[in-house]
Amino acid sequence: MSCPSLSRPDWCQAIPLPLLEAALLLTWSSGFIGARFSLDYAPALLVVFWRCVVVTVILFPFVISQLRRASPGVLLKNAGIGLLAMAGYLAGIVQGIALGVPAGLAALVADLLPIGMALLAAGVLGQRLAWPVWAGLVIGLLGVSVVTHGALAWGNAPWWAYSLPLLGMLSLAVATLWQKRLPASDSLGLLPNLWLQCCVSGVAFAGLAGAQGSLAPIPSAGFAMSVLWTAGLSTLGGYGLYWLCLRRATATRVASVLYLSPPITLLWAWAMFGEPLSWQMVSGLAVSALGLWLVVRTEARQARRR
Fold first, then answer.
1. Alpha carbon separation from 51 to 87, 172, 278 (Å, rounded)
2. Which of 146, 248, 254, 272 has the fewest Cβ atoms within 10 angstroms?
3. What keywords are assigned to this protein (predicted)?
4. Are 151 and 102 a contacting pair, CB within 8 Å?
């Protein structure tokens, strides 16, 4: 995937990767805060639908010329990636919570992304990861478990509903690996890709949200803020930076960075809702950071040997 064409075509190459990853953490974790905020004003799927609509409308003037030049095959491939990465992932998490899966448990399952991606890469694609990378992934997951331990519960959802967050996580994992293996000739620029993802996902969410009620926006400031927050920070920021980082680093590293999203989410919650911080969160953050360091150090050593 190429960077969007601005005054310098390779402008994103000048930004240090750790800085992009820090921005990814802030924006990705903002999605959980936006989802929590929006529950007081509208059904979750309705907010997700309108966030896709807003991004699609805003980006259209900037991407129409690039989309016209793309072949139908390229558009279909990128639309498939978008459906898996956005509609599949968000629908699995949101619907699971709506059916009674506790939010803490759904978030923990979503944070299995690095492990799920590594298992898919090894089992399906035949890729081999060094043992320190596996160790880093397990340590990172341990840190996430420490952070989210207090929020874990089983809830009263139907037994099959607990599979929805897992399917959502696997959907994003497949999309990530597919995007990483996509030939450069089949890749769209960042903004056209985001537009296409939101467009096809918006259609999918229209069906899901429409089955539960009206698709009309709710005339309230809270609903408007929920849509703008998730459209700007979570979609343009979170997904945009996710694909940018994926262009610069391995899929394993990018997914491992998201191990740090639970404590960052708790920091968001402390700043916005006054929720208390704890030493458990700090210790979990330290453990996850150790796991991420193992992954990054091992991959850097392997890159120097090539």
1. 12, 19, 33
2. 272
3. Membrane, Transmembrane, Transmembrane helix
4. yes
Among the residues of 124-239, which ranges form H helices? 131-148, 163-181, 190-210, 221-229
pLDDT by residue (tens digit) across 218-273? 999 999 999 999 999 999 999 999 999 998 888 888 888 888 887 888 788 788 77
b/e per residue 161-183 (b: at least 16 CB within 10 A): bbebbbbbbbbbbbbbbebbebe
**What's the token pair of residue 249?**
């680093």
Closest CA to 119 of 27, 251, 264: 251
The residue length of the chain stands at: 306
Output phi, psi for 2, to 5 deg: -95, 160
Q: What residue ranges of the chain have pLDDT lower than 70? A: 1-12, 103-104, 125, 150-155, 303, 306
Asked if 259 contacts 288 with a C-beta cutoff of 8 angstroms, the reply is yes
Residue 272 main-chain phi, psi, to 5 deg: -95, -35
The pLDDT score that the predictor gives to residue 9 is 44
When the pLDDT of each residue in the chain is averaged and rounded to a whole number, the result is 84
- Is residue 36 within 8 Å of 224, Cβ to Cβ? no
Domain assignments of the chain as residue spans, ordered by start: 16-305
Q: Which residue has the tokens 């129409």?
A: 64
Cβ–Cβ under 8 Å, residues 30 and 233: yes
How far is it, in rounded angstroms, from Cα 229 to Cα 231?
6
